[in-house]
Amino acid sequence: MWQLGLPWALALLVTAAASGPSAEPADPASIFADLSPAELRAVRAFLMERPELGLSPSRGGPLAKNSLFLVELLPPPKRSALRFLAHGGARPRREARAVIFFGAQAEPNVTELAVGPLPRPSSYRALPFKGGRAVPFWARPMTRLEYELLHEALVAALAPLEPLLREATGFGFQNCSERCLTFSDIAPRGLRPGERRTWLVIQRFVEGFFLHPAGLEVLLDHGDRDPRRWAVRQLWYNGRYFGSVRELAESHARGALPLARLPEPPARQLFSSYEPRGRFSSGTPTDVHGAKVCEPQGRRYRLRGNRLEYGGWSLAFRLRSSAGLQLFDVRFDGERVAYELSVQEAIAFYGGHSPAAMQTKYMDAGWAMGASGYELARGVDCPETAAFLDAHHLLDADGPVRFRRALCVFELPTGVPLRRHFDSDFQGGFHFYAGLEGRALVLRTTSTVYNYDYIWDFLLYPNGVLETKVHATGYIHATFYTPEGRRYGSRVHSHLLGNIHTHLVHYKVDLDVAGSGNSFETMDIRFENISNPWSAGARVWAALGGMRAGVGQERPAPRLTPPLPCGRYHLAVTRRHESEPSSSTIYTQNNPWDPPVTFESFIRDNESIEDQDLVAWVTVGFLHVPHAEDIPNTATPGNAVGFFLRPFNFFSEDPSVASRAPVIVRPLDPPACSRLHIQRW
């Protein structure tokens, strides 16, 4: 890890510039608000001016440089935040987390800094990982600069294969302005620590290029900081391995290579496009508007900065560049039920016959899935009535970038009553009917992590239930079809194999139920064969429920290689520690073998979890066996997972009785029931 010299370490204790009055809004939720564009620029300017850091712009220049990769909010310590939220007074110190790539030194590394106080930063300090683990330079996330250099190296290396590629696909790399080839890269980038060798899937650059592999996969070694030393180490073409570009080119020149000739893509209605094609047999109209959400009397929720209020609910939210949505200070009727609820990681592990498919184990925090939320389409991604919010990220850029309409908030009719009852008199009439419409407030964003699109939702219900949900859609990660590949998926098009994979999503749930001191219990239910107390000699089966103290980890899922950073456990409960803020990192993708954060260490210490500040780590997921109906995109029905937080004897009754939206109908002339008394509020 890059170390400060002693004079500079002492200098950090000195304020470089006088801090003026804070410009933050007064709402307490703002202590959790994402950094504003002005704050992002201030942090970058402060760090760029520090001569000891020697920072260069992110864009352009060599790889072997010191550069600022990421700036985002560093949330305040929980104890300080709770003290402020409970008693007011001085706000917690507002700081930024800055990720710096130190590539221009003998021992390159990645270092994280805390920078503050904001809005006028004057000092910084190192942010160590638990156990003082360092982040090696080769474990860094990819940057736009490295992708540009990777493309240049690939085009140059594959020049001898241009005749092969043109003959087989009609597309190429050389001097290309149209009918071009492109590539998708997979990760991890190697088989052991220290490697940075990536399998690249060559594809035709047409709409939905993810579904147009050319049959060629290339292993390119880009571990050296000097791109001139990068080299192709191996190739796979149409089911065969080749040790060099020359070997493959010569095989083609001799006529000894079975070519995988691809059909010419049509100009319209390409199978990977969204253009309509075909007709429904019923003939019902699809070219007119369908049902819509409306708010006839205006919004029933309130947005104030990053505070959201709805019915009994109140919470603060932010959109982390690194990992996405994060809720803080979640309350119902003024009482805190959770301090934090956040997305931690999204994992997709693949199987396949080609080298790229069998190597693919995506860990999407390493692709900055929080900064992959692009503009939401009104009326499609969110209802027309939704409130839309922008996000600002400073990621692999030389200033903050505005992501328009990256989040939305809307009230959603669920289409099913929250609760209802028809009280029959069993004579053809009724005593009363009562029902409460089903509605929920939705906070939504998306992450388009290359081919896949994740739709992230938090739903708030008026009965004190909170639901987390994620839908998977977008393009499948597909590879070139070979007969051997059928063991690992489905043939979804003529030259396309949809590879089997698992989706696992990890959440952090820091519950504070009636205070921070909580315990974990599970309920066991079993059947008991007992004597019937009111009929001598008879027996009856009765359900018996009981609570028992929980343990620190629940049933583990099967172990995979490389080890999952967090997804091995369906549920794990640990003591909360400031040194364990997240279960994964942006570095785990490229260093899954020895990552700076190992989730196993959170539970190995075997700490007591009785009457302590606890965190539940929840993993949800599903197995995806791709099929032809995943063309052009995976559909959301059947591809959503999540979990609920539900009150259990927390309230004296269903808190939704406070709603003024129920309908009660009583007959005025039973049993005829021809005249009704209808009550609404």
From TrEMBL:
Keyword Signal: yes
Domain Copper amine oxidase catalytic: 292-528, 568-656
Keywords: Copper, Metal-binding, Oxidoreductase, Signal, TPQ
CC cofactor note: Contains 1 topaquinone per subunit.
Active site: D364, Y452
A GO BP entry: response to antibiotic
Gene3D superfamilies named in the record: 3.10.450.40, Copper amine oxidase, catalytic domain
Domain Copper amine oxidase N2-terminal: 39-123
A molecular function (GO) term: copper ion binding
Pfam families xref list: Cu_amine_oxid, Cu_amine_oxidN2, Cu_amine_oxidN3
Cofactor(s) of this protein: Cu cation
GO CC annotations on file: plasma membrane
Every Copper amine oxidase N3-terminal domain range: 140-240
Residues annotated as signal peptide: 1-18
Source organism, top-level taxon: Eukaryota
EC numbers: 1.4.3.-
UniProt similarity note: Belongs to the copper/topaquinone oxidase family.
Protein name, per record: Amine oxidase
Gene from which the chain derives: Aoc1
